[in-house]
């Protein structure tokens, strides 16, 4: 899927491209998610499985990227990071992903401002999802991830433009087996359901 997506977007940059770097900072929000656990005690006996609802507070997210642009479209390799605190447990959820993303910048409809454009994007990547919990221990796994973007961009100069965008990111389900910090528990098999993350950010593109 990733290969087909990359090949299908390369025709956008057949001629007249600039190199471009981007950085944006924003907030990130998660809805309640579910964590399934199956613990094994020191004798090797499986304990009853549990399914726990996790509530998260909104935290920060950051993305940096580099790629090419022809001013009407751009293709970037983007490194993404977000962090969330759990409201109903002592723990955090962090995501770190690398994405190949393509953005289109058509003119803004019904607005006669040449320097203002829509920003429409999509991306595919691979992400590490890490759940740190004081009771369950650490859950970490690498999963497939997708994202979609919608926003607006404004040219500040010939080489610099600013943008606002909202994004939806999907992360596949996460599985891991690890040692437990609790006495009498040898290990915990954990699975975090697939989840979506929403974010709103402001950023800059520099063309050179």
Task: Give me the oligomer status.
Answer: single chain
Whole-Å distance between the termini? Answer: 31 Å
Please report the total strand number as a whole number.
13
What's the story with the biggest beta sheet? 8 strands, antiparallel, barrel
Strand order, largest beta sheet: 1-5-6-7-8-9-10-13
Order of helices and strands: HEEEEEEEEEEEEE
What keyword list fits this structure?
single chain, 208 residues, mainly beta, four-stranded antiparallel β-sheet
Description:
With 208 residues, the protein is mostly beta strands. Helices cover 4% and strands 69% of the residues. It is built from 1 helix and 13 strands, in the order H-E-E-E-E-E-E-E-E-E-E-E-E-E. The chain has one helix at residues 2-9, and strands spanning 18-30, 33-41, 50-54, 56-57, 59-69, 73-86, 91-104, 116-133, 137-155, 160-171, 174-179, 185-192, 195-207. The strands form 2 sheets. An 8-stranded antiparallel barrel has the order 1-5-6-7-8-9-10-13. It starts with a helix and ends with a strand.
Annotate the secondary structure layout.
Layout: H1 2-9, E1 18-30, E2 33-41, E3 50-54, E4 56-57, E5 59-69, E6 73-86, E7 91-104, E8 116-133, E9 137-155, E10 160-171, E11 174-179, E12 185-192, E13 195-207
Antiparallel strand pairs: 1-5, 1-13, 2-3, 2-12, 4-6, 5-6, 6-7, 7-8, 8-9, 9-10, 10-13, 11-12
């Amino acid at each position: 899927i990733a290969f087909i997506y990359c090949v299908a977007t390369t025709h956008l940059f057949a001629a007249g491209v600039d190199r471009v770097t981007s950085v944006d900072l924003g907030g990130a929000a998660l809805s309640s998610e579910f964590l399934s656990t199956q613990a094994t005690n020191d004798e090797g006996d499986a304990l009853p499985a549990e399914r726990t609802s996790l509530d998260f507070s909104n935290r920060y997210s950051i993305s940096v990227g580099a790629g090419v642009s022809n001013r009407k479209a751009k293709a970037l390799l983007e490194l993404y990071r977000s962090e969330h605190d759990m409201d109903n447990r002592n723990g955090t959820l962090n995501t770190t992903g690398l994405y190949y993303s393509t953005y289109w910048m058509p003119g803004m409809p019904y607005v006669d401002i040449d320097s203002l454009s829509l920003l429409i994007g999509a991306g595919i990547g691979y992400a590490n999802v890490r759940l740190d919990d004081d009771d369950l221990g650490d859950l970490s796994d690498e999963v497939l991830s997708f994202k979609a973007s919608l926003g607006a961009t404004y040219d500040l100069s010939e080489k610099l433009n600013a943008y606002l965008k909202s994004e939806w990111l999907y992360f596949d389900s996460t599985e891991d087996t690890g040692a437990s910090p609790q006495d009498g528990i040898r290990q915990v098999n954990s699975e975090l359901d697939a989840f979506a993350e929403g974010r709103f950010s402001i950023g800059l593109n520099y063309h050179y």
